[in-house]
Amino acid sequence: MNVILLCAGFGTRLYPLTKNVPKPLLPVAGKPIVEFLVDQLAATDWMSNCLIVSNHHFADEFHAWRDAIARRLSAVQFSVLDDGSTANDNRLGAVRDLALAVRSCSLSNPTLISAGDNLFDFNLSSFFKDYAEHPRNLILTYQETNLDQQRRTGIAEVGEGGRLVQFHEKPPNPPSGLACPTFYLLQPSALQLVDRFLEESPTADAPGHFLAWLASRQPVFTHQMDGRRLDVGNLKNYQHAEQWIQNARF
What we know:
With 250 residues, the chain is an alpha/beta fold.
């Protein structure tokens, strides 16, 4: 399985911490944020290739991290893709970064797309077991009870058999509490549609916009997880992250 980690943001809400360090590489409990997810994925034995999409400003930092993690997880092929952006004002956006990454990957394999700044307290093995038994476009969901958090993430409406019926990106009035972070395991045929989506919606930024569009063209199914997620998107959550990790179940 390919893994694409979208790490090209500039983390402006965490300034000054992210002036010289990209948000996914900020330390939590002595470990870069993104490394928690990488270790969880490596433990499932599903990940064979991992592509990190970086902006140009922080590309050297990601190359250095890649070299270190590759020595420890030698069974996985790690690479860094520089999207060329140098500042928040000329960033490509997550969907264009995804398109760039898809062009660099083999489309013969399923590909997991995830953000690099989330901490997950999930048993990911159950997600991949579900996919192994029923290969299809599959996304991770979990029950979010906090209304403010529901408004800050993607929200799924699910129909028969767990099929995604509607996806709402950061809705002001969430229709459900079924949260859907960027954790999408997509078939090659779905990935081939990213460029077409951008032709129709050239200003789209969040990956959830592509997911909503995709769900009207291909079946997308959900796998609901028990557990918690922390989006390290602001200073308050970053300051809370170390305690959050200490209480996590992995």
